[in-house]
Design a protein that fits this description.
The strands form two sheets. A four-stranded parallel β-sheet has the order 3-4-5-6, sandwiched between helices. It has a two-stranded parallel sheet with strand order 1-2. Helix 3 runs parallel beside helix 4 and helix 4 packs parallel to helix 5. It is built from nine helices and six strands. Helix 2 links the parallel strand 1 and strand 2. The protein is an alpha/beta fold. Helices cover 51% and strands 13% of the residues. The termini are far apart. It comes from Mycolicibacterium porcinum.
Length: 253
């Protein structure tokens, strides 16, 4: 479980452990990862992992096999978000976002694939609803998450054509209340996420546990014929016209 120390990754770790799975929490945040592992007990183990480092992935896969006796499910949930419209985003920020969000997902899939193919199982990649909309302030993030979908489809096609017992699907979360979103609220709106002014904004967001439920479904035998799909989990927010826009349209008529 990359990015398993917080946000959607943490919620998925808790979901899997609650259902009896052995989980390796792989994250660059050592303090949060070790704390979560200690809380969850013997079923969870923490491994520090920088997903942008392909060599580190080999060690992480080895840790999973040693902890669980094999590898059936990979969840790529590590991600970062750095703002910057197209005429302002720097080379460094572009490469950093691509390195974590797209390259990190690729490195994880490549490193884990032989073990999952051997045992049979599933890969679940976390993309974003941002690939369906114009997130003007996040061109690098949107591009990377779109790449995750293409990667997911390619792996799924390879497994189907090769007869390999591996399914690969992607989840496109909408606005979810995670530390990354809290940071965005501070950065873009200048608000404390715990403040009363931010409360309506947070109330409209989904919860990490709601995405974790979908991760668990895609990893389970209940999704045995679901492969190469990009599942939108956003409470219909992506395709809903804001109420203010509807009011303005009616007034104009």
């Amino acid at each position: 479980m990359s990015g398993g120390a917080s946000g959607i990754g943490e919620a998925a770790v808790r979901k899997f452990v609650g259902e009896g799975a052995k989980v390796v929490i792989a994250d660059v945040n050592t303090s949060l990862g070790e704390r979560l592992s200690a809380e969850l007990g013997a079923q969870a183990e923490f491994v520090r992992l920088d997903v942008a480092d392909p060599q580190a992935w080999s060690g992480a896969v080895d840790a999973v096999v040693a902890h669980a006796g094999g590898l059936n499910v990979l969840v790529n949930s590590a991600g970062i978000q750095i703002g910057g419209v197209i005429d302002e985003v720097t080379d460094e920020d572009w490469q950093r976002v691509m390195g974590v969000n797209l390259n990190g997902t690729f490195f994880g899939c490549r490193a884990a694939f032989p073990e999952i193919r051997r045992a049979g199982g599933a890969i679940v990649n976390i993309s974003s609803s941002g690939v369906l909309q114009g997130y003007q302030q996040y061109p690098a993030y949107s591009a990377a998450k779109a790449g995750v979908i293409a990667l997911t489809q390619s792996i799924a096609a390879y497994c189907r054509n090769g007869g390999y017992p591996v399914r690969c699907n992607a989840i496109l979360p909408g606005g979810i209340e995670t530390p990354m979103v809290h940071d965005a609220i501070r950065r873009e709106f200048g608000l404390d996420p715990t403040s009363e002014m931010a409360a309506p904004m947070l109330a409209a967001l989904g919860r990490p546990s709601q995405v974790a439920d979908t991760v668990a479904y895609l990893a389970s035998d209940e999704a045995s014929f679901v492969n190469g799909q990009s599942l939108l989990v956003d409470g219909a927010s992506t395709f809903t016209v804001p109420a203010a826009s509807l009011t303005q349209s009616v007034s104009a008529e």
